[in-house]
Write a structure and sequence with these properties.
This protein has 112 residues and is α+β, with helices and mostly antiparallel strands. It has helices at residues 3-6, 26-41, 77-83, 89-93; strands at 13-20, 47-54, 62-68, 97-98, 104-107. The longest helix has 16 residues, at 26-41.
Length: 112
C-alpha cells in the first residue's frame, strides 16, 4: 500500500459485495476479477478504488468493496457500461453467487 493510500481519509460511500463461486472455476474467476472486472470499474468517474478480500473463516468466500465519491456511482451509465465491457464478463458473472443483501451501498456516518 502506498503512503498516499495509507493516509487517505475514509471514502464518502462504499459498495460492498459478498459472493461465492464454484471451486472448479475459482482460479479462472479470480484471475478475471482481479485483472479485468475490478480494474474496469475503477475507471468509472466517482470510483476511488476497488479492493478484494478472501474469507479466512465464515462465508461467503469473497468480499469486494469499491470506495465511491458519492453513493450513486453504481447507478450511473458509466458503471453500467462496465458490466459488459469485456466479452468474458457475462460468462464469468454467471458463476457469482451473491449473499443476501449483496451488493449494498453504504455512506460514511462519521470520521474516526
Amino acid at each position: 500500500m502506498t503512503p498516499r493510500i495509507a493516509q487517505s481519509p475514509m471514502a464518502p460511500a462504499l459498495q460492498i459485495g459478498r459472493m461465492d463461486v464454484p471451486p472448479e472455476v475459482d482460479a479462472e474467476w479470480n484471475a478475471w476479477y482481479n485483472t479485468v472486472y475490478v480494474p474496469n470499474y475503477e475507471k468509472v468517474p466517482g470510483v476511488i478504488r476497488g479492493r478484494r478480500y478472501r474469507a479466512v473463516t465464515g462465508t461467503p468466500t469473497y468480499l469486494t468493496f469499491y470506495e465511491f465519491e458519492h453513493p450513486k456511482v453504481s447507478e450511473t451509465e458509466a458503471w453500467h457500461v462496465q458490466r459488459d465491457a469485456a466479452p468474458v464478463n457475462e460468462r464469468m458473472r454467471q458463476h457469482m453467487r451473491h449473499a443476501p443483501g449483496s451488493p449494498g451501498v453504504y455512506v460514511k456516518t462519521f470520521e474516526l
